[in-house]
Amino acid sequence: MRVTTPPATSPPTLRALVSVRNLDEALQAARAGVGFIDLKEPSDGALGGLPVAAIGPIVLALRHAAPATPVSATIGDWPADALALIERQVARVAATGVDFVKVGIEPGPGAVALAEALGRQRRAGLPLVPVLIADRAIDDALLERVLAQGFAAVMLDTADKRGGSLLQRHGDARLAEVIARVRQAGSLIGLAGALQLGDLPRLRQLAPDFTGFRSAVCAGDRRLGLDAARLAGLLGALSQPATQAVAA
Ligand SMILES: O=C[C@H](O)COP(=O)(O)O
User: Fold this and answer.
1) Atom number of ligand 1 nearest to Cα 165
2) Domain assignment present for 224
3) What's the pLDDT tens digit per position in 183-207?
4) Is residue 194 one of the residues assigned to a domain?
5) Is there a catalytic annotation at residue 161?
6) Is residue 173 part of a domain?
7) How many A from CA of 193 to the centre of ligand 1?
8) How far is CA 117 from each of CA 3, 123, 185, rounded to the nearest angstrom?
9) What is the pTM assigned to this prediction?
10) Complex ipTM value
11) Into how many domains does the chain fold?
12) CATH of the domain at 20
């Protein structure tokens, strides 16, 4: 599955990645027309993983229901120093047939070693997308180590979903700088982290390649089920011209 940046002449668009926890939610997201479907267990943390055996059948069903929609899955939240376990889990999740395997990288001890281990797996052919946990400062040195690995895409996300969205934690100038740096390094950039409808005007200005949502498409709590009305509302707002979306 090839995912590309729209041509520079296109109007700014925001492609939505929506995180789902089971087949019902995956088909609901596919029918609603989301840009990317992300398989994870939201009750198990920011990057909670589904049982590996559950991923393959969902991917297969999505290939029929939405063949053009890229599918990602997370490996679960692991301590950064559990490198052997992480590498094994990456290989197991990749073998399910997903387009991308998402792995969280929390700044701190072990983060650089993890980024480099993931880089080795990428060079071995595994479709990895590192997710930099950015509740606090975005660590430039760590970002550079991640970018040096040549991943197709890099995401920013937050671990604590109750402390405000990614956009409430970082100013536009800083996020724009990070987006530009990731693109300059040749990777796509995705933003996530308790993003809400009210963040859309700023997101449109920042124009990342994709934006990730779970909290905003659930009724009150990301651990609950996908809410059809909220999902439709989000996709409707994303499809509106920017001036109308600002008023949403
Ligand atoms: O990968 C994207 C995340 O699942 C988004 O979840 P969130 O909106 O609750 O931060």
Assistant:
1) 10
2) no
3) 999 999 999 999 999 999 999 999 9
4) yes
5) no
6) yes
7) 5
8) 23, 10, 19
9) 0.92
10) 0.98
11) 1
12) 3.20.20.70
